[in-house]
Design brief:
Two copies of one chain form a homodimer.
Chain A lengths: L11 H8 L3 H9 L8 E2 L5 E2 L2 H15 L4 H13 L4 H42 L7
Antiparallel strand pairs in A: 1-2
Chain A binds a DNA duplex (30 and 30 nucleotides) through helix 2.
Chain lengths: 135, 135
Amino acid sequence: MIQKMETADLSIGEVARRTGLSVHTLRLYEREGLLAGEVRRDEKGRRLYSEWDVEWLANCVKFRSSGMPLATISRLARLVREGTGNEAERLELLCEHQHRIADQLAQLHACLDLINNKVAAYQRHLAIGASGDPW
Amino acid sequence: MIQKMETADLSIGEVARRTGLSVHTLRLYEREGLLAGEVRRDEKGRRLYSEWDVEWLANCVKFRSSGMPLATISRLARLVREGTGNEAERLELLCEHQHRIADQLAQLHACLDLINNKVAAYQRHLAIGASGDPW
DNA sequence: CTAGGTGCTAGACCGAGGTCTAGGTCAACG
DNA sequence: CGTTGACCTAGACCTCGGTCTAGCACCTAG
C-alpha cells in the first residue's frame, strides 16, 4: 500500500526544479524521445509528469553526465516504453555503456597521473626552486 | 649527452600518425594556440615539428580526453611558451583541472553504480525470469 | 482591466570541436 | 610529360546539446 498512490502530477516547472534541467531541455528531451513514460497533458495541453518520470529523468541526468549521447538514452527509453520482452537488448545497451565508462575512467586516471606528477613537480619547484623540467 | 641531439624534424603527416590526431586537427590546434613550442617552417612553408612537440601533443590528447577545453590547454601552452616565472599560474590551472577530474570520477562512479545494479537486475531477470522492476 | 507568471509550439541561434573543400605549390615517379 | 601525394591557406560546413525568441493562451492578483 506504499506503492503508487497519491502520485500528484507535476508541472514542467516543478520537474525542472527537481531535476536541475531547464524547461527548454525537458521539452527537448521529450522531443528526442528520452522519456520512458508517455507524457500526459492536461485539458489545456500542459505537460503532466509523474514522480516516476522525475526518477527516470534523474537517471537520464546521470547517463548524460557519464557521456551517454541523447540518441542512446532515447533507444533505451524506447525499449523501456515497449515493455517487457526486450530485456536482453536493454542489458546489451547498458553493458556497452559500462565499457565506455570503464574507458573513460582509465583515461581520466591517465590524465590524473600526468597532472599529479606535474603538480608535485611544480610544488617542489616553487618550494625549493629546483628542477628544470621540460615544462 | 643524451639530451637533445638528433631530433629530426617531423612533418605534419608524421605527427598526425604519431598522435592519432588528423592533420586538420593539428592545424586547428596550432591556430588555437595549443602548442607550447613555436612551430617552425621549412623554406617552402611546411610545418616542422620536433619530438618534443609530439610529447606535448600527447599530453594535449590526454587533457582533451579528460574534458579540458581547448581554451584551457591554450592558456597552459601560453604559460609554458612564456617560460620560467609563471609556475604558480600553471600549478593553479592544473589543480583546477585536478578537481574537475575528481568531479567527473565521482559522476562516472555514480552512473556506474546505477548501471551495475541494472545490469545485475536484468541478468537475474533473464536467468530466472523474476523481478518486475520499475524498468 | 491589466500585469505577471506559467505554459505551449515552431524554429532560430549558439559554442565547442572538429572535418572537409577549393584552389594552389611543390617534389618524385613512371 | 602528366599524375600522384604531401603540404599550404582561408573559409565553409557539420554534429551535439542546449538555449532562447516570438507569438500565443491561460490564470491569478492587484
